[in-house]
Amino acid sequence: MAEGSAAPAGAGPGPGPGPAAAAPVAPPISLDDALALLGDAKHLQREKGLKALSAQLQAVPADAEQAAVVKAAVLELLAGDTWERKLGGLMGGKAYVSLADPALSEPFTERLRLAAMALLEDGEVRVRMAVGDVLKALALRGGVPVFQACAPQVLASISKNFDRTDAEAAEAAEGGEGPDGQQQRGLNPMREFLTESPALPGSPTPEPEPQPQQQAPEAAGAAADGAGAAGAGVSAGSLVSALLKSTYRQVRPGQGEMRHGTEGWKCLETSMKALQALVEGCGAAIGPLLDEPLRELLYRALHHPNRFVRETGHFTMCTVCEALRGPALGAMSPRVAELLSDGMGDNWSQVRYAACVSTRSLLEWLGEGPEREALMPVLLPPMCLNRYYVAEGVRRYAQETWRIVMGEGGRAAVARHIGPVVGHYTAQSRANNHAVREAACACIAELLEKVDRDAVSPHVPALLRSLVVCFKDMSWPVRDAACIAAGRAVLAYPEEMRPLAPEVLALWLAHLADNIPTVRANSAAAAAKALRAYGDEVLPALLAALNDMLLRAREQPAESGRYSGLSNETRFGVAERAARDNDPAVHADQEMFSCGSLMARFSTSYLIKSDGCMDHGFSRDKEPWEVSDGAVHLLRELAAVRPTAVTDDHLQGLAEIGGMASFQHAFNLHETVWRSLLPIGQAIGKQRFKRHLRVLLVPLLADCRCGHQLAEAAAQGAVEGLRAWIGPNIFAGYLPEGVDAAALFGAGDKLLVPQRPALVGLLGVFAQRPPALPPPEGRPAPPA
User: Fold this and answer.
1) Mean pLDDT comparison of 176-190, 602-616, 664-678, 756-770, highest-scoring range
2) Which secondary-structure segment (H or E) carries 267?
3) The CATH number of the domain covering residues in 512-560+617-784
4) What is the pLDDT at residue 532?
5) Per-residue model confidence (pLDDT) at position 749
6) Best CATH choice for the domain 31-142 from the list 1.10.10.10, 1.25.10.10, 1.10.3470.10, 3.30.1370.60
7) What are the backbone angles phi and psi of residue 177, rounded to the nearest 5°?
8) Biased composition, Pro residues: where in the chain (predicted)?
9) Which residue in 74, 239, 337, 393 has the most C-beta neighbors within 10 A?
């Protein structure tokens, strides 16, 4: 609104807008202001200037005068003395080349190209990344001549920085060129990370401070005196020092075995991205220029120690496959397939994904025919495995590639190349990456179930042995996957599995008491599959284990004794749980554990590799309640296969377990019991189940308002399910005394449970406690 203009009708005098007032519209940014923002030190301001410049170039074609203003401003920014101005100039130059009239930008592109190439090895990584964007825009407009003009310098930069010696790494650490080329003398950023280690790098120890110069003569004199004297203390100290120096060695991170795959590699990654941008910008027309030396350099990049360089190399290979489609691609495809197979097995998910992208490009451009079929022994196994890889992006892309490339012939292709597939699966089941071992177990199970038996049968013993090895893995996701796969294998190949059945059955029963809930549940399901396959041969062992494990929770120590000063000592209720959860002794000074493994994170036990000759044993001590939890899972699975194996003692044991409440994890155990109750009842039949229903309802109704959300949900679901299965009227007759069926269920047979109040402040849930269900017989009332 212009200054002094009249306000619209209804506008209030206050600064705040009225209810119907529209938000003020920001005035458009002028061209001069947009160009000025490109050189701002703040990222958001530079993005704002780029957006404004792009909008103006798209809205109205620039005339000669405006084009001259933009080009002059871009070149001025590129000649700036700060990296922010250089970055802004590259951003503006890319926008101008992409959006402006080609006739107006023709003389400008060469100057922009030269300025961009001058910044190819700039000290700021963001500037170097922007150089690649500018080169791609120039290649899209200028084509192959741009590649011919830029490729020599880009390839020279890649070749020069491809290898990094330990001496160069030490020089960079001690003080070399900074981000803008200044010398950083006297700096030692890696000083505090020097380690002393007899075998592997250990805990960080500070580097000793050097002696001052003025103390050098005194130190020299003392050394001379010590050498002349034969004192016992000096001799002992020298001996200890010599022994320590011979035993321990200093290792600097970034050198030798301490070099990491993500450490900086000067400007190699950004120069590789510049090459990728040039190849992508030129497209298929670049094919004749991709000669043997350039391809060899690209092949080397796919095996580079730096994972960012490998990732960029694979993406570049994708464009190379497109550019060389035809006889040239067919000639080089065997070697490329080997490199892509290695990339699809990389430990870094980003590299694995890039290799999957290149693999799809290679197979699509080759098309169906003998050339593609010749690559299947190399590419097919990792393509299969990545369909089960833990990283979602890799997994979904591999599955989509499988549908595109294989169509309906995937199983037949695996059967044709069963030897390489089995060899790859068994090798990956021993890989260092636990996610790869987990995927290998899933692939082995799929192979045993879905692929032609005549092709798979000769390889079944090797596949089963690999599953047994993974069953003893240090990582629980691998054990879980191996447990599921072994259960599927029993049903698919029962006779071939028979020699390993005693060993596998013992592992299943041992894993019923595993620390991980899913492992316990899946072990029970796998044991039930063994019962389906072998019948009475394994039933006695399963029943013996069930009878021994079901009531093991009786041995669980009561944790509420530590908090006896609180009210309601006889029941581990809300107050006791809150005290336990806030007890520093429970959470302080505990070991750290690695992801996916109950093995101490900073422990040398990772050097021990599970090999099938040793127990899995990579877990904490088992709790008695976990043993009972696994038995409940086993009881549910046995009831589905052999209902007659479920006895009255088992159902009475469920009622006893459901009434336990003296330890912290009692309600986790209750959750399993209540989720298993309806399946067990449906398996054994109403007549037998109703004999125990009244006893089971006592703890079941109590847990409908126990304060543990998962146990509450399981209990409420069990009550509603049992009532619908048995019948409302019959169910009402089994309710404990003091519980009114009419008040318990409302419209639509929905269980009426008092809801928690709305949270008022941080302690609102503790300040307002809702009324609970009437306490059933045998269970004390919850605290007021």
Assistant:
1) 664-678
2) none
3) 1.25.10
4) 93
5) 65
6) 1.25.10.10
7) -80, 135
8) 201-211
9) 74
